[in-house]
Amino acid sequence: MDPVVLLHDVAAQRKAGDRLFELSVGDFEVGGGELVALVGPSGSGKSTLLDLLGLILPPSSYGTFQVAGMNLPIDSPGLKNAAQLRRTIGFVLQHGALLPFLSVKDNIVLAAALAGASPDRCELEELCAELGISGILEAKPSQISGGQRQRAALARALVHRPKLILADEPTGSVDAQQALEIGRLLQNTTDSHGLGTVLVTHDLALAKHLGAKIYQIYPEIDQPGVVRSRIEQV
Questions:
Q1: Using an 8 Å Cβ cutoff, are 108 and 115 in contact?
Q2: What is the per-residue pLDDT across 104-123, written as a single tens digit (0 to 9) for each?
Q3: Positive or negative, the Cα torsion across 45, 51, 54, 60?
Q4: CATH class of 5-88+162-233
Q5: Where are the domains of the chain?
């Protein structure tokens, strides 16, 4: 099976005022059915890598840049690829990021519509049952727990049947037990749906407990105002 993500000799840069941040990726690979954890301290470049994989941030240079089965040399990611990406990538954010004025069900259905997908009722019911949220579909996000919001966010990310899930600190706003439950849910969903999943986390112990393939980000202050980070598998 071809990898869902394959990066080789990829670099990206960000500037903020007089500060420069540079991320260097020698090799990074995510296979179908594989959970990959990206671990590192705040400000080390974890979100920068997710922005690269989501084609929000263009690489400054690259050897191989393959995401969700697409070989990308790319000149201007984002709008140029948005329609295609909505069908191949699902995003799970730290606090779920559900629209507060919609029910859980309507949040999920809207995500499918924006991705150009139209799951039938049986598909939707099966997905929600798998994720344990069948009983909260008519509730608003403010009426459910943090763990339930993350389950709903995962349903929203999966509803259009993507190849790749990008999960940005989905366990960062819940307690240790809920973090473990969410991690196991990601692990089981990755396996059962044959997805590639990238889990960004500060929690190395959780990543090891889940049996994830782990990449560590190492930030280095090269000179005043310049931070360079590299990624290595551990």
A1: no
A2: 999 998 888 877 777 778 88
A3: negative
A4: alpha beta
A5: 5-88+162-233, 99-160
Residues across the chain: 234
* E strand segments, the chain: 5-16, 19-30, 34-39, 64-67, 70-71, 89-92, 164-168, 196-201, 213-223, 226-233
Q: Side-chain half-sphere of 40: how many Cα atoms within 13 Å?
A: 23
Among 20, 25, 22, which residue's Cα sits nearest to residue 9? 25
Within 10 angstroms of residue 211's Cβ, the number of other Cβ atoms is 10
Q: Which amino acid is at 35?
A: L
- Quickly list DSSP for 86-141: TTTEEEE-TT----TTS-HHHHHHHHHHHTT----HHHHHHHHHHTT-GGGTTS-G
pTM above 0.85, yes or no: yes
In whole angstroms, what is the distance from residue 103 CA to residue 155 CA? 13
